[in-house]
Design a protein that fits this description.
Its EC number is 2.7.7.9. InterPro entries: GalU_uridylyltTrfase_bac/arc, NTP_transferase_dom, Nucleotide-diphossugar_trans. One of its GO terms (molecular function) is UTP:glucose-1-phosphate uridylyltransferase activity. This protein is of the alpha/beta class. Helix content is 36%, strand content 23%. It has one domain: Spore Coat Polysaccharide Biosynthesis Protein SpsA, Chain A (Alpha-Beta Complex). It has 12 helices and 13 strands. The chain starts with 6 loop residues before the first strand and ends with a helix.
Length: 297
């Protein structure tokens, strides 16, 4: 029996070591992208796609994540008394986004293990997984399309992005077959971070998944791989190889704007890209950027 997908799982237990010392006491997911923490963009994307039940898989020292999506009555009262209703609305927006839940990962055993920790909450229905390092521009459709394809095909659906073949070693690469839809492919296999020569294609897996609940049983049987971690890619490989039992795996090819906040340089680029398109910041930022760039060697 098919279920309408309402649940999103957001793994957020990583240490954020690439951003030390900024992440020594603050979760990397709370690093600001313009004026919102990165994690809020991800939750907003889930909500805009119709997912109202969000489970965040966290770790130690991640209390700031729960606090951000909770009420702050002292701040709210202060803003209300000052008549600062614009900022009050922004504060309340994060509180009222979704029905938020939290579970700790415990042992840092990889993305597959983090997804497995959601088993009791998700139950026997399809669900979305959104990784916080990837921010998808709200003007571009991805997750909604993936949810539609999952329901139509009764299969697991992953997001794919065509990348420069010289960069494929940074991603999981998908072996694919065409379907009757140019934006949808059937995934026949997955290779984690292959060399350019060994990559089955230049279609890279990015951080959006709509998974069938069968993935939990497969993850529970998956042995730790590289680095002693349970890899979600290994479970997806099993599902792709057994479409009769699992419905198989399909990929939605994304051709829109994606911002990578997991790398320091790309994080800076993401802030600039998003800021220049803002009505309140862009008109002043764009001419400053042009002038600044004109003086670079």
């Amino acid at each position: 029996m098919k279920h309408r997908t309402t649940k999103a799982v957001i793994p957020a237990a990583g240490l954020g070591t690439r951003f030390l010392p900024a992440t020594k006491a603050m979760p990397k997911e709370m690093l600001p992208v313009v004026d919102k923490p990165a994690i809020q963009y991800v939750v907003e994307e889930a909500v805009n796609a119709g997912l109202t039940d969000v489970l965040m898989v966290t770790g130690r020292n991640k209390n700031a994540l729960e606090n951000h999506f909770d009420r702050v009555t002292e701040l709210e009262n202060t803003l209300e008394q000052k008549g600062d209703l614009s900022r009050l609305a922004k504060v309340n927006a994060s509180t009222d986004l979704a029905d938020m839940h939290y579970v700790r990962q415990g042992d840092p055993l990889g993305l597959g293990h983090a997804v497995l920790r959601a088993r009791m909450h998700v139950g026997n229905e399809p669900f979305a997984v959104l990784l916080g390092d990837d921010i998808i521009d709200e003007r571009d459709v991805l997750l909604s399309r993936m949810l539609e394809e999952q329901e139509k095909r009764d299969a697991t659906v992953i997001a794919l992005l065509e990348v420069d073949p010289d960069s494929i070693h940074l991603y999981g690469a998908a072996a694919i077959e065409a379907t009757d839809d140019p934006d949808v492919v059937r995934v026949t296999g997955l290779v984690e971070k292959p060399s350019r020569e060994d990559a089955p294609s230049n279609y890279a897996v990015i951080g959006r998944y709509v998974l069938k609940p069968e993935v939990f049983g497969i993850l529970a049987r998956t042995e730790p791989g590289k680095g002693g971690e349970i890899q979600l890619t290994d479970a997806l490989q099993v599902m792709a190889a057994s479409p009769e039992a699992t419905g198989g795996v399909y990929g939605v090819v994304f051709r829109g704007r994606r911002y990578d906040t997991g790398d320091r340089l790309d994080y800076i680029k993401a802030i600039v890209q998003l800021a220049v398109d803002r009505e309140d910041l862009g008109p002043q930022l764009r001419p400053w950027l042009r002038d600044f760039a004109s003086h670079l060697d």
